[in-house]
Amino acid sequence: MFFITTAIDYTNGAPHLGHAYEKVLADVIARYQRLRGEEVYFLTGVDQHGQKVQQKAEEAGINPATFASKTTKLFLNLWKKLGLQYDGWAETTDERHKACVQAILSDLNERGELYKKGYKGFYSVKQEQFLTDRDRNEAGEFGPEWGQVEERDEENWYFRLSAHAEWLKGFVEKYPDFVTPTIRRNELLGALANSSELDLCISRPKERLRWGIEFPFDTNYVTYVWFDALINYISFAGYRAKEGSNLPEFEKLWPCAAHVIGKDILVPAHGIYWPCMLHAMGFADEEMPKILVHGWWNRKNEEGKVLAMSKTFGNVVDPDALADRFGADAVRYYVVRDITTGKDADFDVERLIMLYNQELANELGNLCNRALNMTARFAGGIVTTVSEAGEDEVKLRASLEAVIGEYRVAMDAYDIAEALKAINRHVTQCNAYAERNKPWELAKDPALKPRLDAVLYHLVESLAHCAVLISPVLPDPAARIASQLRMDDLLSLKLDDLKWGLVADGHETGKPKPVFPKIVVEEEEGEEIG
Ligand code: MSP
After folding, report:
1. Hey, which of 25, 70, 136, 184 would disulfide with 293, CB 3.0 to 4.6 Å?
2. Does any ligand 1 atom lie closer than 6 A to the CB of residue 62?
3. Which residues are bridge partners to 154 per DSSP?
4. Are 458 and 436 in contact (CB under 8 A)?
């Protein structure tokens, strides 16, 4: 079982391209694992509690539940538009999740993992956490990244995070695959080496935050939003689920194959709090999840300075509008093609258009169009596989075999961009092969019919393979190619089934229709979007 989750997005506003990237990345990985023949469970969702949502709801003059449910719809609509295929949907206001969080709190309290104490200190409303002197900048102040900082004196509940710090250090050292890629793992090791972990404040008094999960044994408090949110990964996987809750069987899903998250929430939330919480609940080392950390989509501002895409900088790209303008396929393709998993990239609408037009419209779309068109025109739509294969055909088959191998290695390493580049290499080879062998010339001489058949067959067979390979990233276009090939079962093939000979002798192909209509942008419009 391959159980994959994403971070759950805050519902304090509309989704932006960073959110969309992460969900598409996870969707591509989930679809690839299905292609490998794995049973997959893909969980994603929204983080609905916390001060930010309460604050935004107040500003809008509505209650937080209404506000959160409104913004949740924006995420749901976008995921539909982008064709995400998830199996579980996590909303933290779900009663089943609340019951699970409360059961865990009671359990941890009974195990002596929680305690209550008074604390006076500075609190960042934006980051929803108490600050320490370590969070001050060189001038001794709390910088703008903390937003509004208030002094607070209150009693709260604490989780004995420090009691698990030594275990965590040993665990991260012992299991190199806990965090991927290595640079992020090193970042976590660095953070662990430089800090003596303090205990974690996991409650908020209701006087200042009502919008959260109530403490089961101290009802004047609600649960700190991170403590609540992290638990989604197990609550929606069926941990401590009640009979009839309609949740999966926990033992079947856990441990998680991959939590897909952005680099900003590795330390401390996913790399420190989460494993310590699980450890305190009694999870063994072998039951810890794996974490895949991706980079950020950034965007240049008007002066050309690269900034993280965030509402604070006002430089967010709206994925919904982007999909309306260029189509969901172009957005899905771009967000995984123009970034290396783990690294950052700059959003550039011109590259989106260029990559789509060049690699999809001009190359793959062209291969589809010419393979089917020429088979229809020169061979009555019939593929003849018993044909004359020469040196050029041997080369083309070798190219495909190599590409399938490279694709597999890249996808197994979550390197989607490299996998796409591998497919493109074969497509380019195919188009060059067609140019070299000129079926339109071969068709003029009946004596050359065996050569013509060989060339057409090699193009059609290659196209069928490419449709399967690209299907995790572009499921709809892959289905359109399969249907034009009249190979309706093509996409139920598994990766291991990809061997030369998918197309049967005498198979009749269908008519080509443009799979990737070229994006045409008027000059003024380009300036507006970019
Ligand atoms: N609610 C928390 C996560 C809780 S998980 C138990 C949160 N939400 S978020 O809405 O701020 O971010 C959701 C995800 O989007 C995170 O993984 C974050 O890293 C990712 N991204 C936010 N901005 C991003 C970019 N500009 N680029 C890529 N991903 C980014 O954190």
Report:
1. 184
2. no
3. 119
4. no
384-428 per-position pLDDT tens digit? 997 678 999 999 999 999 999 999 999 999 999 999 999 999 999
Q: Which residue's CA is the nearest one to ligand 1's atom 10?
A: 9
**Atom 5 of ligand 1, nearest CA residue:** 7
8 C-beta closer than 6 A to ligand 1: yes
Interatomic CA distance for residues 224 and 233, integer angstroms: 16
Pocket test of ligand 1: the residue of 261, 267, 298 to mutate, having most ligand atoms within 8 Å of its CB, is 261
Helices (H), 111-242: 165-174, 182-194, 225-230, 232-235
Q: Is 262 in the pocket of ligand 1 (CB under 6 A)?
A: yes
| Listed residue (326, 336, 337, 328) closest to 359, CA to CA | 337
Radius of gyration of the chain (CA): 27
140-175 b/e (C-beta count within 10 Å ≥ 16 → b): eebeeebeebeeeebebbbbbbeebbeebeebbeee
So where are the chain's domains? 348-497
Residue with CA nearest ligand 1 atom 18: 262
Ligand 1 atom 29, closest CA: 18
The pLDDT tens digits of the residues spanning 423-451 come to: 999 999 999 999 999 999 999 999 999 99
Question: Kindly report the CA angle at 408 between 406 and 411, in degrees rounded to 5?
Answer: 105
Task: Flag whether the pTM goes above 0.70.
Answer: yes
Q: Is the CB of 316 under 6 A from ligand 1?
A: no
Question: In the β-sheet with 149-159, what is the strand arrangement from edge to edge?
Answer: 129-131, 114-124, 149-159, 200-201
> Is 87 near ligand 1, meaning CB less than 6 Å away?
no
Give 302's DSSP letter: T
Superfamily of domain 348-497: Isoleucyl-tRNA Synthetase; Domain 1 (1.10.730.10)
